[in-house]
Automatic annotation (TrEMBL):
Protein's UniProt name: ABC transporter substrate-binding protein
Signal peptide location: 1-23
Lineage start: Bacteria, Bacillati, Bacillota, Bacilli, Bacillales
Alphabetical UniProt keywords: Signal, Transport
Family: Belongs to the bacterial solute-binding protein 8 family.
Species for this entry: Paenibacillus taichungensis
Subcellular location: Cell envelope
């Protein structure tokens, strides 16, 4: 065999080997996308709050969430690729937002489409036009983020095939709550009030947000004025004037202050006022001031709140 033919065979052999390697790599790289496509093709039928039937992925891998309780999904390890991060500012989200793109508020269509989601949860349930626009990008579920937190956990469990995980979360939360109340050792009938300072406005909270923990069965009793004027009227909160402080103030006062100069200055002024000083909770040293970021019942916050509450009360 002459040298020219030998060189040609060598080149052909090397070329064939290289093509074989490239083909193998190509097959290897195509597997994840193929599996992703198969996951998208496997669907289940989901009934929305309005009774509409929506076909959604059986195993969602690229979720867009728009609303105020992104932390619910993070607590349940749901694969979120995009969200309106304007609401996810609490300290309890630290280290949990990596890999999640901010798609704006209430959600930019181009930014959402670019992420190629396989499911969109829209917490702005009354925005029918946007639901229709989102549905052209991916299956869309109007999601009620105002549901009580245990209902939200179970709803997410249904949507993402995590029913067992949802029940385990609730069981763990209830058990940890019991341990916390054992530690706090409240007297029967001890009441508590949640005041929220937002700028110059002062609000009294009901049994939502922080109230879902404080007013648990083994927790604080609800002051009569809060029961009559907020909870009985199916309100989440009401604005109050300082003159009404004695009417709403319980044995313990939790003062939540928004993190800006105006809110802090107004809160400081109120707590230095003569009327504030007359409140029994103030005279007994039962006032706990903290950030308004805890005015929520998202799952990440609730998990950490059971540790934070005893610290606030120095117990």
């Amino acid at each position: 065999m002459n040298s020219t033919l030998m060189k040609q065979l060598t080149i052909w052999g090397a070329s064939f080997l290289l093509l074989a390697v490239l083909a193998a790599c190509s097959r290897s790289e195509s597997i994840p996308s193929q599996e992703l496509e198969e996951n998208r093709e496997q669907t289940i039928s989901y009934t929305t709050q309005s009774g509409e039937q929506v076909e959604i992925p059986a195993q969602s891998q690229r979720v867009i969430y728009l609303g105020s309780t992104l932390e619910d999904l993070l607590a349940m390890d749901i694969p979120v690729v995009g969200a309106n991060l304007v609401h996810a500012t609490g300290s309890y989200t630290e280290g949990r937002l990596e890999g999640i793109e901010d798609v704006g508020n209430p959600g930019d269509l181009e930014a959402i489409a670019a992420l190629q989601p396989d499911l969109i949860l829209n917490g702005y349930t009354e925005d029918a036009d946007r639901n229709t626009a989102f549905a052209k990008i991916a299956p869309t579920i109007p999601f009620n983020s105002a549901l009580p937190f245990k209902e939200r956990v179970r709803e997410l469990g249904t949507i993402f095939d995590k029913k067992d995980e949802a029940e385990k979360w609730i069981t763990k939360f209830d058990a940890k709550s019991e341990l916390m109340w054992d530690k706090l050792q409240l007297e029967d009938g001890e009441t508590a009030t949640i005041f929220l300072q937002l700028g110059k406005k002062l609000y009294v909270m009901g049994n939502r947000s922080l109230g879902v923990v404080l007013y648990q069965e083994r927790g604080f009793a609800i002051p009569p004025a809060i029961q009559q004027n907020i909870i009985a009227k199916d309100q989440t909160f009401i604005e109050v004037s300082e003159e009404l402080l004695p009417e709403y103030a319980g044995d313990h006062l939790f003062v939540l202050v928004l993190g800006n100069d105006e809110s802090q200055a107004e809160s400081d002024r109120m707590m230095q006022s003569p009327l504030w000083q007359t409140l029994p909770a103030v005279q007994n040293g039962n006032v706990y001031t903290t950030s308004a970021e805890w005015n929520t019942d998202n799952l990440l916050a609730l998990e950490q709140l059971l540790d934070e509450l005893p610290k606030w009360m120095n117990r």
